[in-house]
Design brief:
Shape: globular
Structural class: alpha/beta
CATH class of the largest domain: Alpha Beta
Strand content: 15-25%
Distance between the termini: 74 Å
CATH architecture of the largest domain: 3-Layer(aba) Sandwich
Helix content: 40-55%
CATH topology of the largest domain: Rossmann fold
């Protein structure tokens, strides 16, 4: 890992240490995604199939997963694998069910009642990546809250393997979360199909899920189009920042860094520590543990962009973390919870030696679809709220309008909006009050 002493580093060096790696220029990625989107809008299913083959996928005659493929998927998994998916679904469901909020009603003044009610988004498209590995966990994270929220139409898109099938574990997870519509498509073409519809794919109101730079770009493009679809958040390649002091176990720290490094060659891992001795031990552990990993080629490439930042104290460590705004923040210190109040920018936080990020990825109950690339400064991770709309309601009695109406008349007059004021005046006149 590259090592930087935060205290002595220049402003430029600090900025470089917290910069995200970019495999492609943003402008080029957006242009390519826009080209794919335009082609799918014009060509429908045929364009989706053409891009699937162009980007290394199989030739497809039908985009939708059949009932027989769902049955085959269940039979392809062991009882232990199915049980693991079931437990993850149960925990994720339990956490998201607890997020439901009751209707809100308050009388802001006598005769004036304001309310807020919740309604589910009608149709949602759930994107489950499958680039270098299938991600049934993402199917769970997206489909479980969609069911709990009450979204009427729920569909998953996931890239097919060389055999033309969506991975069995993804299909089993989908079924356990109540999703029976799964499409064999990935990349920007899948986002376009969800946003605008094709012969086989129903247009949705909102698109969820992480993905490649092209998927993220496509989501942002369709969200900006009035005819497209809303999106959950910009979610790209994975990243983790670990805050550790001299009490941390170097084996655990290294393992957590490598767990993110294996996602993608442009995944990013950062260690922020008050202890140079720990940093040296972690470096040794990284080399030892990397040698045992099946995806070590990916790990070696992503770790080339990793860095270790030495700080004088934990207050500075948290400040560095907040500036970076990591997708995942792991705190391995003597008193990890004591630092939590200082954390203002992070997708998800893992406290203490016994809380590996992997548990959050799979089965603790929290959602692993989180903002990356610094978006944690202004975005939250996916929750039940993202699948719902909150509608406000107001109801006034005659006495309430008599009391509050003149205020609205005065304010509309200040803004020069006569018709607004008139809508109140005609009612006050009907009530025999001051017009």
């Amino acid at each position: 890992m590259q090592t930087l002493d935060w205290q002595t580093a220049s402003v430029d060096a600090r900025r470089a240490a917290l910069a995200r790696p970019a495999a492609e220029t943003r402008a080029e990625v957006f242009a390519q995604a826009a080209e794919v989107i335009a082609a799918v809008r014009a060509g429908g299913d045929a364009a989706v199939q053409r891009f699937t083959q162009k980007f290394g996928g199989p030739a497809l005659t039908d985009l939708r997963v059949s009932a027989a493929e769902f049955r085959d998927a269940r039979a392809a998994l062991t009882a232990e694998q199915v049980a693991a998916i079931e437990r993850a679904v149960a925990n994720v469901s339990r956490f998201h069910e607890a997020q439901q909020s009751p209707p809100l009603a308050i009388e802001t003044m006598p005769g004036v009642v304001c309310e807020r009610v919740t309604r589910a988004i009608d149709s949602v498209g759930l994107y489950v990546p499958a680039g270098s590995a299938p991600l049934p966990s993402t199917a769970i994270m997206l489909a479980a809250p969609a069911r709990i929220a009450g979204c009427r139409a729920r569909a998953i898109a996931s890239p097919p393997g060389p055999d033309g099938r969506v991975h069995a574990a993804v299909l089993v997870a989908a079924g356990l979360c109540g999703v029976d519509t799964v499409y064999k498509m990935g990349g920007a073409q899948a986002i376009a199909a969800f946003a605008f519809g094709t012969e086989s794919v129903r247009k949705v109101d909102k698109i969820f899920g992480p993905g490649s730079a092209w998927v993220t770009a496509a989501k942002q493009i369709v969200a900006a189009d009035p005819a497209g679809a809303a999106i959950d958040l910009p979610a790209g390649p994975s990243e983790v920042l670990v805050i550790a002091d001299d009490s941390a176990d170097a084996r655990f720290v290294a393992a957590d860094l490598l767990a993110q490094a294996e996602h993608d060659v442009i995944a990013q891992v950062v260690l922020v520590t008050t202890s140079r001795a720990l940093a040296d031990k972690v470096a040794t552990e990284l080399a030892t543990q990397t040698a045992t990993l099946s995806r070590r080629d990916i790990v070696v490439q992503s770790m080339a962009a990793s860095r270790c930042i030495l700080v004088p104290d934990l207050t500075t460590a948290v400040a560095v973390s907040n500036e970076y705004a990591p997708e995942h923040l792991i705190i391995q210190t003597r008193e990890p919870r004591a630092l939590l109040p200082q954390v203002t920018c992070a997708g998800s936080v893992f406290l203490g030696a016994w809380s590996p990020e992997s548990i959050g990825d799979y089965c603790s109950g929290t959602n692993h679809v989180l903002p990356t690339f610094g978006y944690a400064r202004s975005y939250s991770g996916v929750s039940l709220l993202e699948y719902q709309k909150r509608i406000t309601v107001q109801e006034l009695t005659a006495d309430g309008l008599r009391a509050l109406g003149p205020t609205a008349v005065t304010l509309s007059g200040m803004e020069g909006l006569d018709a607004h004021g008139n809508a109140v005046k005609v009612r006050l006149a009907a009530l025999g009050g001051r017009p």
